[in-house]
């Protein structure tokens, strides 16, 4: 049986619950309003477990799309459970419609808007390098302001505490401690593979990548921002992927520190019941992987890229 430590479990918080992406399945555990818990397990599509998910650079794009699809599906499932409409099937068109809307929001808010705002001060900016640094600073400011605004909403703030429960549980699992609330409680709500750290890293890398485009006419810079997003995302994932495997290196810890600090805006200290939900999701994902590995013991163990924790 493959060593469970070779796979990096991760996931995201949902409404009153946690989603964990395993090697073979995605598991969503949700706490109903009545207090009991429901666990939904679904097998992963073949494309998310194949060679593309392990190929450098390409894996970042695959994992990003996967995270959006699985995340939105789990989020809608948790909303249905919360409204006691668990049996409703989520239309595929609705999922892709929400993904498209999310992509447009990210592109406009974090890539196009900073460019236009920087352009307003174009005559006061001496050269291309300074232009892109100013644009990058504005981009980071918008990102931080957006996270801060989200953290002030009561419903989102509660989701963020489940985010903290997910991180604590994954941190404890990777440390090899028993999956018990008492053991997990002491662990950090920050995690190196968090999606917040990923986005922060992407926005920093964007400064470097867009600098090569130069300060050209507006329409060309708009096109470049859109076309180069997959490149920036792929590089961002590789930085997080490398950093997560070299946390014992002091320089790497310094590089990762700002992203970990940023997670204070997207995580909260969970209560024991929230940790129990995260544990249930992770335990079920591990169990499914163990069952599948036992049935396929003749297969050679493969070290996979794992998941980015949101």
Description of the molecule:
The protein is of the alpha+beta class. Helices cover 59% and strands 8% of the residues. Strands 1-2-3-4 form a 4-stranded antiparallel beta sheet. A hairpin with a 3-residue loop joins β2 and β3 (25-31). It is globular, with a radius of gyration of 20 Å.
Descriptors:
four-stranded antiparallel sheet; globular; alpha+beta; disordered N terminus; 310 residues
Summarize the structure.
By secondary structure, this protein is α+β, with helices and mostly antiparallel strands. The chain has ten helices and four strands, in the order ββββαααααααααα. The N terminus is likely disordered.
Number of helices: 10
The total strand number stands at 4
Tally of structural domains: 1
Low-confidence stretches: 1-5, 298-304
Q: Which series of helices and strands comes N to C? A: EEEEHHHHHHHHHH
Strand order of the largest sheet: 1-2-3-4
Rg is 20 Å
Structural classification: alpha+beta
What are the SSEs and their pairings?
Blueprint: E1 10-14, E2 17-21, E3 25-31, E4 37-43, H1 58-82, H2 92-120, H3 128-151, H4 154-175, H5 181-184, H6 195-211, H7 218-227, H8 229-244, H9 250-262, H10 272-295
Antiparallel strand pairs: 1-2, 2-3, 3-4
